[in-house]
Design brief:
The chain is α/β, with parallel strands linked by helices. The protein has one domain: 3-Layer(aba) Sandwich (Aldehyde Dehydrogenase, Chain A, domain 1), CATH 3.40.605. Helix content is about 45%, strand content about 20%. It contains ten helices and eleven strands. The strands form three sheets. It has a five-stranded parallel sheet with strand order 8-7-6-9-10, sandwiched between helices. Strand 4 and strand 5 form a beta hairpin. Helix 2 runs antiparallel to helix 4, helix 3 packs across helix 4 and helix 4 packs parallel to helix 6. The longest helix is centred in the middle third of the chain and has 21 residues. About 45% of the residues are buried. GO terms for molecular function: oxidoreductase activity. This is Aldehyde dehydrogenase family protein. InterPro entries: Ald_DH/histidinol_DH (IPR016161), Ald_DH_N (IPR016162), Aldehyde_DH_dom (IPR015590). It comes from Salinibacterium xinjiangense. Keywords: Oxidoreductase.
Length: about 280
């Protein structure tokens, strides 16, 4: 007997939950050769606002966690990705038209990126911070702290899973919370990653994932007054100069578009941190 096919409709990931778009809109996700795979939610402006609210609500708790604790959480994500490795390989093969070896290589590289960043979580402060030489009986110490809520346009042209790891991991390991606009043409990696996050130790709201049109969603996030920074890694095909101008109206820190998935780097880790400098009087006794 032939079974009836049940088309999947994937939802957004906001505040640790899986809501439908409030607009009720969806769009079709197809394989590289045009076969239907699933329906994905087409996020609206209200969805973007809800995601920012969730990210802001989660910021205090996440940013106050120790670096060691955040590192353990990131490592747990890598463990869960490893356990669902075959699923991600199949999804990347379908949505990006990759051979199985190429899809496997991308999944393995993405897992390695999570592990690499997890290892930096309790170490980057010692590298990025310092004791400053000053005149007088004072200690002068500088230390990096998280910027706040970071909006991210994930890489859009291939490497959808690796692209997500490359932009989400360095932002959250320092204590930021994020709102991510996934790859429009290949969103299944983001949807499956959200399922991994929901079953991991990541608190709800730390990572919020929107599927849909970056061209539609990005201006709303760039102009949102409660978004502190925006990563335009995957905005190369958008009018990203206009996005920079919109972001400047609310004094956001902006990272310009990159060609593909950004490689792991300390620069990525400190990109969305602010340096706090503290003066302390030396004991005269």
């Amino acid at each position: 007997m032939t079974r009836l096919a049940i088309p999947k409709t994937y939802k957004l990931y906001i505040g640790g939950k899986f809501p439908r778009s409030e607009s009720g809109r969806t769009y079709e996700v197809s394989t590289k050769d045009g076969r239907f795979l699933a329906n994905a939610s087409l996020a609206s402006r209200k969805d973007a606002r809800d995601a920012v609210v969730a990210a802001r609500s989660a910021f205090a708790g996440w940013s106050s966690a120790t670096g060691y604790n955040r590192g353990q959480v990131l490592y747990r994500i890598a463990e869960l990705l490893e356990g669902r490795r075959d699923q991600f390989v199949d999804e990347l093969s379908a949505t990006e038209g990759l051979t199985k070896p190429a899809a496997t290589a991308q999944v393995d590289t993405a897992i390695d990126a999570w592990v690499w960043y997890a290892g930096w979580a309790d170490k980057y402060v010692q590298v990025a911070g310092n004791a400053n030489a000053v005149s007088g009986p004072y200690f002068n110490l500088s230390t990096p702290e998280p910027t706040g809520v970071v909006a991210i346009i994930a890489p859009q042209s291939g490497n959808s899973l690796l692209g997500l790891a490359s932009v989400i991991a360095p932002a959250i390991l320092t204590g930021n919370t994020v709102v991510v606009v996934a790859s429009e043409s290949a969103p299944l990696a983001a949807v499956s990653l959200s399922e991994v996050l929901a079953t991991s130790d990541v608190p709800g709201g730390v990572v919020n994932i929107l599927t849909g049109s970056p061209a539609e969603i990005a201006p709303w996030l760039a102009g949102h007054a409660d978004v502190n920074a925006i990563d335009l890694a995957g905005a190369g095909l958008l009018d990203w100069v206009d996005l920079q101008i919109i972001a400047a109206d609310t004094l956001k820190r902006v990272l310009a578009p990159e060609d593909g998935a950004p490689p792991p780097s300390l620069e990525r880790i400190v990109a969305f941190t602010e340096t706090k400098t503290v003066w302390h009087t030396k004991s005269l006794i």
